[in-house]
Design brief:
Layout: H1 3-25, E1 29-40, E2 43-57, E3 68-82, E4 97-109, E5 120-127, H2 138-153
Antiparallel strand pairs: 1-2, 2-3, 3-4, 4-5
InterPro entries: VPS13_N, VPS13B
Keywords: Transport
Domain Chorein N-terminal: 13-158
């Protein structure tokens, strides 16, 4: 009678994996005073976030132990400035986005109870108030940043064709199956 004990073992293993996944997915993460900077030639793009908190919620978006998560961003400020040849910013422009708070909802769907990676991730972002401002000096820089994002999206920059690569480079490949 080797059938039933193995079935029980697989059920227990699947249960333990599912339990571990739920515990890991339900970790509460808080990041305070997050500053991200991107420098491209003479452009400096900076994002300042006072607080970002990620936690799981239930079907009515209240805190709970679930596979649905919320990330609350408080006081997000986005600046776009120009630097000189020595790398210093001589004149700071008005922020593109100033002290905007928003909430991002994440919903993970798994193919089965033993799946380690979600098959579907749904993302919703809600902003109560959004005040954007762009100056004449920022407009060409903003267009250049958008062009870089589009080129990155289409693989025109930042990647190598399969089989190619530079020494010491790291490549990440995501597969769902």
């Amino acid at each position: 009678m080797s059938g039933p004990p193995r079935l029980i073992y697989e059920d227990v293993r699947g249960y333990v994996q599912s339990l571990i996944r739920r515990v890991v997915n339900n970790v509460n993460i808080v990041v305070n005073n997050l500053i991200l900077k991107y420098v491209e030639d003479d452009i400096v793009l900076s994002v300042n976030i006072t607080s970002a908190e990620c936690y799981t919620v239930d079907d009515v978006w209240e805190r709970a132990f679930m596979d649905i998560a919320v990330i609350d961003f408080a006081d997000c400020t986005v600046c776009l400035d120009k630097r000189n040849a020595s790398g210093k910013i001589e004149f700071y422009q008005d922020p593109l986005l100033y002290k905007c708070s928003f909430r991002t909802r994440l919903h993970f769907t798994y193919d089965n109870i033993n799946a380690k990676i979600p098959s579907v991730i749904k993302i919703q972002t809600m902003v109560e108030s959004l005040k954007l401002s762009i100056t004449d000096q920022q407009l060409p820089m903003f267009i250049r940043i958008l062009e870089l994002i589009i080129a990155l999206y289409y693989g025109e920059i930042g990647g190598h064709k399969e089989g190619e690569g530079e020494e010491g480079s790291v490549h990440f490949i995501y597969t769902n199956k």
